[in-house]
Amino acid sequence: MENTNTNDQYTPDSPGRSRAPEFYGFVAWTSTSLAFCLYLLWALVPDEYILWAGIEWYPSREWALLIPAWSIMLLITTYIVYSAMAIAATPSFSDMRAITDARTQFPTSDETNPYINADPSSPVLYDIPIGLVNRVLYYQRSEEDVVHSRNDY
């Protein structure tokens, strides 16, 4: 029976995909599992069995506790150090770097006002100056402004 689907002729050929990551993943998984099993055998099997197997030298058993303990402490210390570095690199609220940086893009004065966009499309992205933000958020209207705005209707 012949394939009569006309869309097959327009379907692009899929490029050949390498299976190397699958093999590397399998090797990493098996070697990690084997290393963990050997670690458990070394840590838990009595000395007589290790000597009976023909192994004459192996590390001291105290390393069975020291390696996980040092690993956990290294992980905790890493979290603390990175958090401290982030806090130290953060500028204070009174610093100008907390408001603006080298990549700030304010609109030029010869352009139309990008903050009042009549066009339904998305405007070009600009940073809003902090003075304009403060005026919009914290503008205190006087009593005269309130009376005039009521009379306008």
Fold topology:
Blueprint: H1 20-44, H2 47-52, H3 63-89, H4 130-138, H5 143-151
Protein name: PIG-P-domain-containing protein
Subcellular location: Membrane
Main location: membrane
Multimerization status: single chain
Number of beta-strand segments:
0
Helicity range: 40-55%
Order of helices and strands: HHHHH
The 3D shape can be described as: elongated
Q: Count up the helices.
A: 5
Strand fraction band? under 5%
The class by helix and strand makeup works out as mainly alpha
GO biological process, one term: GPI anchor biosynthetic process
Keywords: Membrane, Transmembrane, Transmembrane helix
Subcellular location: Membrane
Transmembrane segments: 23-45, 65-89
Structural commentary:
The chain is mostly helical. It has a domain at 20-58. It is 50% helix and 0% strand. It contains 5 helices and no strands. The protein has helices spanning 20-44, 47-52, 63-89, 130-138, 143-151. The longest helix is centred in the middle third of the chain and has 27 residues, at 63-89. The chain is elongated, with a radius of gyration of 34 Å. The termini are far apart. 0% of the residues are buried. The mean pLDDT is 82.
Put the structure in a nutshell:
This protein has helices spanning about 20-45, 45-50, 65-90, 130-140, 145-150. It is mostly helical. It starts with 19 loop residues before the first helix and ends with a helix.
